[in-house]
User: Fold this.
Amino acid sequence: MHPRPGIQRQFFLDWLRIGAFGLLLTYHVGMLYVSWDWHLKSPAASTLIEPLMRLSNPWRMSLLFVLAGAATVWMFRARPAGLLRERAARLLLPLLTGVLLVVPPQPWFEVGQKLGYAGSYLEFLGLYFSGFHGFCPGGRCLVLPTWNHLWFLPYLFVYTALALGLARWLGPERREGLAERFGRLAGWQLWLLPMLPLALWRVTLYPLFGSTNALVDDIYQHASFLTVFLLGAGLAATPALFDRLVAWRWPALALALVAWWSIGLVVEHARSGAAVPEAWREAQRAAWAVQQWSTVVALLGFARRHLDHDHPWRAPLNEAVFPVYLLHQTLIIALAAALLPRALHPAAEAALIGGLTLLLALLAWRLLRHTGPLRPWFGLPRR
Assistant:
């Protein structure tokens, strides 16, 4: 995180960012082994680890948007002029790299496994860049070209642009007034009140729009993620608010676990073949929002209490996060395609895929950080 001059660097937010992207890598390895649809599937896929995967589903990306909202406020206060241009280069250049170079192997492996496509990678690239829409696994046609796991980047750029436009429209006095009013909230209010709009979006918008990651039609996710992005900005505007969350970290964690358990009950009831009353579905959606924000509050509180310190590994890991995020999913899928035919034990296979993915991504980061012209194309700041 990059606080403005005069505000001490929030080391605990850096550690949360590093941990959140590490969790994302682990989660995507797990997607090989669950029954949910994904780009590639292991023959050992089952429902066994799905409760653990559901443990992070509601809040994993919300935490990243909270952190991004906080970072945006500090960057704006430090250097408001040209910030949008700077963020465009930092977010959209790696997105272009991803769409053109990093992501294409993912749908190639996907159509090979799901549809038996036997064309070479070069032949597939011709279809990929021509916008071919004839690959339809499970009746859902792939949209090519695609950004797949990099959808976070255009969303973050749009939210940043909206936030900067709002900040300039409000002006300094009204911005300070809003920050002052937000800064009066007690810890329990910071925990409980945001659940209300998040639950409203989940109960009303999610049944209508679902989640698409396609930017233009993702109404529910925009409502939810823009809400938590602005909450992160509000917290960063008055950093003392993070201290107020420390006292509520244990209650927030307990409520998040209760919500996770209740969601699992509805999932298992539906899996048994029994009818699920609509009231249960609405309660499940509300529980999603409770788990979503309660977990974020708990993580902020625990991190503020235990991780607000520097370490020699923090700065390099913080720099490595972006290129590792950019590369990790393609590495996971390519390694899985190579290892799945060997029929290893699923636990050993998953550990090997995850370990090699991290190792190769970190090696790529070490190489890229020394290539000046390529740095911004892979998520590294210009020297």
Remarks:
- The mean pLDDT is 95.
